[in-house]
Design goal:
This is Protein-glutamate methylesterase/protein-glutamine glutaminase. Helix content is about 35%, strand content about 20%. By secondary structure, the chain is of the alpha/beta class. Helix 4 links the parallel strand 4 and strand 5. Helix 7 packs parallel to helix 8, helix 7 crosses helix 12 and helix 9 packs parallel to helix 10.
Length: about 400
């Protein structure tokens, strides 16, 4: 194997290896120091470089192995968005987290960066005072860095030949759809994952609603999947773990890039077919039945799985409204949000599809539903949209 110089070939510190190696890139020395201290409060993380602009980051990456880069957007000399492709060219397996302010401009640039290859983003508190006291920010940052660091090392260890981007799929890691919608079982998986099994897919009948949950790496995955669903007649309900402002921009990007009418869900609006609805940041997105009409209900109920919006409450409410006529799709993301909701989908007779490990930025959420035996298909990202399209176009039972 031809790996990046010095990159560890093991999965991460939990396996007894060295701490994840991180570079912090920000033009403010104060912010760099605060982010460094937040990261190094976790013994599994070591900040090995701290630099002030994108050009310095490129120079540093060419000299030493790094697992994760926390990359500011607005910097002198070379900004984060301009530096991004050069960093990925230097090491296609390094994982880059864009650090942006909670503004419309910051959200738009972050989503553009995700399309260009960034693995994730982190919304920066707007002041050093907020950053110093933001425990939620520190927890989110360290969790993302560790999850992405492990992914960087896994992708680096299985790369063969000259440095190339991560392969789209690993042989035998996914269920392949066949004519008539029959699926082989069990699914073959990599030895470290263990055997996976799939549930039978109903031979006929189409869903009345498509529900999608995603987190880390989710925006890129959503664009890929939704690009195949512009002709779907069902409503598409989406919970992506994102803060306010970011979800507004995400919905706008989906409309422009995927050709689907998409907007943030608004409390009290009826849910109609052929449209996509995104859970707004800091609200749970539920479905209520009002005089027989499925209607958006937004709540400030307590976070679930440390998230608001969360996938589980959305799925529970969808099952109450549509029962067995639910198609749930769990895409890349950290944690296990969506697993309990998908259990209810399956109990009601609905269908669950999970993204496979090889094409997930982080195989947390889809891995949870896959290993729990809830999926009727576990597919590479590029196959999920066409697969949904076929099921959604079936004749009604």
């Amino acid at each position: 194997m031809n790996d990046s110089p010095g990159r560890s070939a093991v999965s991460g510190p939990s396996g007894g290896s060295d701490p994840f190696r991180v570079m912090v890139v920000d033009d403010s020395a104060v912010i760099r120091g605060l982010i460094t201290r937040a990261l190094e409060s976790d013994p599994e993380i070591k900040v090995v470089a701290s630099v002030a602009n994108g050009q310095m980051a490129i120079n540093t990456l060419s000299r030493q192995p790094i697992d994760v880069i926390v990359l500011d957007i607005e910097m002198p000399v070379l900004d984060g968005l301009s530096a991004l492709p050069h960093l990925l060219q230097a090491d296609p397996n390094v994982k880059i987290v864009m650090a942006s302010t909670l503004t419309a401009k910051g959200a738009d640039i972050s989503l553009r960066a995700l399309r260009a290859g960034a693995a994730d983003y982190i919304p920066k508190p707007s002041s050093t005072r907020e950053l110093t006291g933001a425990d939620a920010f520190k927890r989110e940052l360290t969790e993302k860095v560790k999850a992405l660091g492990a992914a960087a090392r896994r992708s680096g260890s299985r790369r063969e030949g000259p440095a190339t981007a991560r392969p789209a799929a690993a042989p035998g890691a996914a269920v392949q759809p066949t004519s008539g919608y029959t699926l082989p079982s069990p699914v073959r998986a990599k030895p470290e994952t263990g055997p996976l099994t799939v549930r039978p897919l109903p031979a006929e009948g189409r869903p009345d609603v498509i529900a999608i949950g995603s987190s880390t790496g989710g925006p890129q995955a959503l664009f890929e999947v939704l690009g195949h669903l512009r002709g779907a007649t069902q409503p598409i309900l989406i919970t992506q773990h994102m803060p306010a402002t970011f979800t507004t921009i995400l919905a706008d990007h989906i409309t422009r890039q995927c050709g689907i009418q998409c907007a943030e869900a608004k409390d009290g609006e009826p849910i109609v077919g052929g449209r996509a609805y995104v859970a707004p940041g800091d609200f749970h997105f539920l479905v209520a039945n009002r005089n027989g009409v499925p209607t958006v209900q937004l709540t400030k109920d307590a976070p679930e799985n440390f998230c608001r919006p969360a996938v589980d409450p959305m799925l529970r409410s969808i099952v109450r409204q549509w029962g067995r006529r639910v198609l749930s799709v769990i895409l890349t993301g950290m944690g296990h949000d969506g697993q309990k909701g998908c259990e209810q989908v399956v109990q009601a007779g609905g269908v669950v599809i999970g993204q496979d490990e090889a094409t997930s930025v982080v195989w947390g959420m889809p891995g949870a539903v896959a290993t729990a035996g809830l999926c009727s298909a576990i597919l590479p990202l590029k196959e999920i949209g066409p697969f949904i399209q076929k099921i959604a176009a079936r004749r009604a039972a």
